[in-house]
Amino acid sequence: MKRQFPLIIIFSLGLFMVVQYFVPHEKSEFFYEFIALDWPPIIGAFALMLGVISLTRVSITKIKRKKEAWGYSIVTLIGLFTMSAVGVVGYHYPPLTRAFNWNFNNIMIPISATMFSLLAFFIASAAYRAFRARSVLATILLVAAIIVMMRFFPLGPLTSVVGRASDWILNVPNLAAKRAILIGVGLGIVSTAMKVILGIERSYLGKD
Amino acid sequence: MDGVADVGRTARLRVCIIAATLLSFSALASAQVENPVADTAAVYPAATIAEPPPAPITNLKVKDLPNDHGHAFRLTWTISADDTGGRNNVRQYAVLRTPAWKGPFTEPQGAGPGWRNEQGHWWHLVEGEWDTVGTIPSSTAEYVNRGGKARESSDYFPDYVGFSFKVLTVGARGSISESAIFGPVESSGQWFHAGKTWVVLAVLVYGGLMLTMVRLARGGKELFIRPLAGINAVDEAIGRATEMGRPILYVLGLGSPDEIATIASFTILSRVAKKVAEYQTELIVPCYDSIVMTIAQETVKQAYIDAGRGDDYHEDMVYFVTQNQFAYVAAINGTMLRRQTATNFYLGVFYAESLILAETGSLAGSIQISGTDRITQLPFFVVACDYTLIGEELYAASAYLGREPILLGTLKAQDYTKAVLMVLMGLGVLAGILNIAWLTDLFVLNI
């Protein structure tokens, strides 16, 4: 029963969601909103607590056992509980909201922006590796990339020719490949959903 | 002198006439600007406009909007004879609606026969109170009047209550003419979306094909499937980590558990965790979503139990990090560089962090296997990882890893469906080239 009960829930709710897609009636919408829109935030709120407990336990274990880089765990715990406390207390005591906003705007946002800005350098290094013309396919990729990049350069009389070539690359071979992948993804999604709903795929339950 | 005085009077009179004319024109113009769209029929004072009204629309028909949840009507008509023809002086059309009954009220607001009780609510007969529900530019012959379904919404109107409609044709200078009244008609919701009939058929055919292939596979039929380099490398990657004595990192991505790519990633995690348990290697699974973490913990725990190594599992293997995208990336990058992970799996939903993760892993010298259904992130993974599962390969990976005939049967069904789709697409192209309209229109979806 321990294994069957989750399968029964998955089958019945999965089947309902499939049928619901074809039923536009208000009553069907009501159940969809109840199951798909109302429940996840409730489950998410409880699961978030589990997440916080997990992060706290892992961090405390690291500090206790003085594992590698355990100092970062102290920073993690200070950040987690300080921001939570300032946020919750600030809700009832507005002056603290300024402290919360200050922390968010002056610590959180710059750090996130720093991480994001790394992407530019990683794109350059990845492009260097990808565009080395070591084979015919890599050379085609290199030529295509140069043409697409050149559309942003002012090239005088060549601008419109390069623009048209770039559009052709993006709208014909590139779009065809993207659509082929999308069709495959669509079929894969239906297939995976059916396997899960029918209980054919149950490895995520820990059972082959 | 008199003559000069006469000339002066005449000149003043002319100035007055010109000023009066200008004022009249400006008043007329401002009147038109202030009332470009009327709320009710009363706002179109035909008597003040020196313009013959345009011919009214004809053939007004109102039907319940099909394939919806109700609370909507579709109006169609034949445009005015003076619209794009005749005097060509139609500015716009205004759709007016009157309920046969208005409500719902909790109790009757007065005595009399104009009240009725319907499903515990009171309704009042108010036929004759017209509301403008929409204005449409000239040359348009269709309008959909959609209302809210919530009683508290301002545009709410109930299903199964009669409404009558008429359309005003508004002339260039504000004159109007009214159509005949159509109604009463009632809106209602449908129990089947007829526009999705082809989808139902496709799902049934696909499902039938899948079950047939599963049955054939169960019966012992040998099914060939194309080998995937990324899947074949999983064993090698786990073996490498074991030999090096370094951990394996498994990243489920930024997806929530309701996304199929995340579900597919759980199934692969289960297989990977089982092999990791057999090889007694360390597994690290940092999670972005706390619900994903809970499911991943159960999946890994069960995989360890199935491998007979339940004691080796501890909850710190699968842990929650944060729900901030770049903080999550920073944490994983730190783990990769500090722990020098031998193998990194990136399987699931990824966004801008894909390249940052994969490039950091590449710098750390890890073997990397990635897979996602996000087309925009695939090039980054292809460039920076050793093996990439592209789109549907992510969903197929679990079947490949398990090599179970039932799961392989579903892959075979997928391949046959793709073959059918290719034939249909070829037919569609041919029909387009040869201009066979009925064939190109055959599979049109009205969703």
Concise summary:
Chain A has 208 residues and is an all-alpha fold. In chain A, 82% of the residues lie in helices and 0% in strands.
Helical proportion of chain A?
over 70%
H and E order of chain A: HHHHHH
Oligomer description: heterodimer
| Amount of helix of chain B | 40-55%
C-alpha-based Rg of chain B, rounded = 36 Å
Mean pLDDT of chain B: 83
Q: Compute the number of helices of chain B.
A: 11
H and E order of chain B: HEEEEEEEEEEEHHEHEHEHEHEHEHHH
Q: How far apart, in Å, are the first and last alpha carbons of chain B?
A: 86 Å
Number of strands of chain A: 0
Share of β-strand residues of chain A: under 5%
Q: Biggest chain pair contact, residues each?
A: A-B, 65 and 89 residues
Question: Per the principal axes of the C-alpha atoms, what is the gross shape of chain A?
Answer: extended
Q: What value does the Rg of chain A take, in angstroms?
A: 26 Å
| Residues in β-strands, percent of chain B | 15-25%
CATH hierarchy class name of the largest domain in chain B = Alpha Beta
* Contiguous helical run count of chain A: 6
Q: Tell me the major beta sheet of chain A.
A: none
Mean pLDDT of chain A: 88
Residue stretches of chain B low in confidence (pLDDT < 50, at least 5 long) are: 1-8, 15-43
CA-based shape of chain B: elongated
